[in-house]
Design goal:
about 675 residues, 6-stranded parallel beta sheet, DNA-binding, about 50% helix, alpha/beta
Length: about 675
DNA sequence: AAATGAAACGTTTTT
DNA sequence: CGTTTCATTT
């Protein structure tokens, strides 16, 4: 391994509490890999090392590099991944959990929230805001109650605190009942397990390495504290702390020396990534933030003389078009591959326009998926079918699927789910395939009967009324007694039954997926989607649109087939899909990234766009949970992604055609003069 | 309670 | 601009 002197010194630190301040581009990854090598050479077992990174991609890369030095066997014995994936890996051995995305859990949360009555003189938090607020609380506070935390945050809302706490209690119980877990639950549950292990002296780790330490939040920090390892090796850069909105607390890195006795601080200052003018600019802007540990960045790459250039455009549209043309020009003149370009923006809303402009010039582009893949209906439905097979009490997924039947909405879907639970003695799979015929599936609800209200719901129908159309084994199934079920919905349930009967015992994800895609229930749904997507304004189906839609759909399925190959059981596949939903990138072309998504990456040619006052820095966001300092750090991160060429662009007018000033960071960098505007 | 169509809505960043 | 929410009808 080739390490410079500073890196070498850090790698050779003795066991203890070590912090490495690694500025952008200073070979952080090499240093972590080097540290692991040192530990192994000193005789530590790979199983005694825990590596925590910010993305799974980062940990995979590091482990791959360790594998090159030692062998694969050894490297793979090192436990490595994000806090969340490490927690999940442990928990799945001990607990039965189904990871759910916040979007889904919010629906469940809403159903609880909606049953509460708030007084009218004040506005309570919306269910969405309340959910997010609680999540931020869990990440950013570990020793306070939500009540205390809210008292500091927003005293006015304390009027509702009893109701809020009641909602959280019920939500928590519901999550336990259905074995649902969200990202925060993973960490909280893992911490509980660690505390138990620690009391028994069974923690296997001697050194914990933590990458991107500046973006650690108190919840994650509490994991490290619960492990309480003999040795810590934390690597980070306070100038790149950009996750305050997720509770990241910059004081965790700045107070390291106070928090850990006999701590050592190392500093990496030689930048191998960027040309000198790029680096000078980045340093100049970031020097407007308070300096915490002394830090200097030295250029190594002195032969790269390219000067960052500023591009001015009249409006957003011409900016995007201009950038697309510029990229094409550079690509042709300098023979730089499209893969080596990145366009970086503060707000995801910039991406659509850019993608359109690039496509107009026939330039491919890839966006780091902000969930869009798993949000498509065809993927969602398919994963729901898998979930239902994997977790026989997954209420959310049952309701999701069943409410696609004609005439059946959320409410009746829930009735059917409850009926399946009853018929199957708490297990929907049994309820569907081997229903207990002696039980009352749809019990009378104990309301209103005393008032003499006529409730026609409970006049149950004869479950055999659709028998002519049903699979033999589904004939007279007790759930069909529901009076709101009609012929169309009965057929849908029949299809569901057939798919379930055929595939519910298959645990190999690959075989299962292949099978499910060819079931009638899925094929019908796909057909419905494709028709819906190829409708023109007058309601007709355009066959060109239809073919395009089908192609895109097939493409997405192909991606899923590709992903699924890495998993050998269904539960881990589903949970992994929830855990790493943003990490897949598709195809070739110019990289389109938010600043956050660009973290840890580097590109020969970088465009930072939409550098206008209010957009970047984004004042709305800065006011929420960040600060101007954090916005400045974001700018710093964006600039330091560039290796050779850097372009900064802004438009004079926004999309409403009103004048807008360039970003303050362009003035701070000395790239524009205040008096010109 | 579901389906449909019309009106409002609000544009964050991630595991 | 596309989604999400609301109101109306069945």
């Amino acid at each position: 391994m080739n390490l410079n002197e500073e890196q070498h010194r850090a790698c050779n630190a003795s066991l203890g509490y070590n912090l490495v301040i690694a500025s952008a581009g200073t070979g952080k990854t090499s240093t972590i890999v080097g540290r692991i090598a040192t530990l192994l050479n000193r005789g530590l077992q790979p199983s005694e090392i825990l590596l925590l990174t910010f993305t799974n991609k980062a940990s995979n890369e590091m482990i791959a590099r360790v594998a090159k030095i030692f062998d694969k066997e050894i490297a793979n014995k090192i436990n490595a991944g994000t806090f969340h994936s490490v927690a999940y890996k442990y928990l799945k051995e001990h607990k039965n959990i189904s990871l759910k995305q916040p979007r889904e859990l919010k629906i469940l949360f809403k159903s609880i929230y909606d049953r509460r009555q708030f007084s009218f003189d004040k506005q309570p938090y919306s269910y969405q805001y309340l959910y997010d607020s609680y999540s931020l609380y869990q990440n950013s506070s570990i020793d306070k109650s939500y009540r205390e935390w809210l008292a500091q945050k927003n005293e006015e809302q304390l009027d509702f605190i009893d109701i809020y706490e009641d909602i959280f209690d019920e939500f928590k119980q519901l999550k336990i009942d259905y074995s649902y877990a969200d990202y925060n639950d993973l960490l909280i549950l893992y911490r509980e397990e660690l505390e138990k292990l620690n009391m028994e002296g069974k923690i296997p780790y001697i050194e914990v390495l933590c990458d991107e330490y500046q973006d650690t939040n108190p919840l994650q920090d509490s994991i490290i504290r619960a492990i309480n390892p003999k040795s810590l090796f934390c690597v980070g850069d306070y100038d790149q702390s950009i996750y305050a909105f997720n509770g990241a607390d910059i004081t965790i890195i700045t107070n390291f020396v106070e928090n850990y006795t006999n701590a050592n601080v190392f500093s990496l200052s030689k930048n191998y990534r960027s040309g000198k003018h790029i680096l000078e600019l980045a340093n100049k802007v970031i020097s407007n933030n308070p300096r915490i540990y002394p830090k200097k960045l030295e250029v190594v790459k002195t032969n790269q003389e390219s000067i960052p250039s500023v591009l001015q455009y009249q409006d957003l549209f011409s900016q995007y078009n201009g950038i697309a043309r510029k990229i094409q020009e550079i690509h042709e003149q300098q023979n730089i591959k499209y893969n080596d370009f990145a366009i970086i923006y503060r707000n995801n809303s910039s991406a659509d326009g850019l993608q359109v402009s690039l496509r107009a010039l026939n330039i491919d582009s890839k966006r780091k998926g902000s969930g869009s893949f798993f949000d498509t209906k065809e993927i969602e439905f398919l994963l729901c079918l898998c979930s239902v097979i994997s977790n026989s009490r997954d209420m959310m997924s049952y309701i999701h699927i069943l409410s696609h039947a004609k005439g059946i909405g959320n409410s009746i879907a829930k009735d059917i789910f409850d009926a399946l639970i009853i018929a199957g003695n708490g297990n929907c799979k049994d309820g569907l395939l081997r229903p207990n015929m002696n039980k009352e599936c749809y019990p009378r609800k104990a309301t209103n009967s005393g008032l003499g209200l006529f409730d026609d719901f409970f006049r149950l129908e004869n479950s055999s009324r659709f028998n002519d159309f049903l699979h033999n084994d589904f004939k007279s199934h007790p759930i069909l007694q529901h009076p709101k079920i009609e012929i169309e919905s009965a057929k849908f349930l029949n299809d569901f039954f057939i798919a379930f009967k055929e595939y519910s015992n298959i645990n190999n994800p690959q075989i299962l997926l292949q099978g499910l895609v060819n079931t009638k229930i899925y094929k019908n749904y796909v057909e419905y989607l494709l028709k819906d997507r190829s409708k023109t304004k007058d309601g007709k189906i355009d066959s060109k649109l239809y073919d395009d839609s089908r192609q895109r759909l097939e493409h997405r399925l192909a991606i899923l087939y590709n992903l699924i190959r890495n998993y050998k059981d269904l539960r881990s596949f589903l949970n992994a899909m929830m855990l790493s939903s943003g990490e897949l990138s598709e195809g070739d072309g110019v990289n389109l990234l938010s600043v956050h998504a660009s973290k840890g990456l580097e590109f020969p040619c970088v465009f930072v766009v939409d550098l206008m006052d209010g957009r970047f820095p984004n004042y709305k966001l800065a006011a929420r949970s960040g600060s101007i300092e954090e916005e400045r750090r974001l700018f710093y991160v964006a600039l330091t992604r560039a290796k050779d060429y850097l372009y900064l662009s802004y438009a004079l007018r926004d999309n409403k055609n009103t004048d807008i000033k360039p970003s303050m960071f362009l003035f701070e960098g000395g790239l524009l003069k205040q008096e010109d505007f």
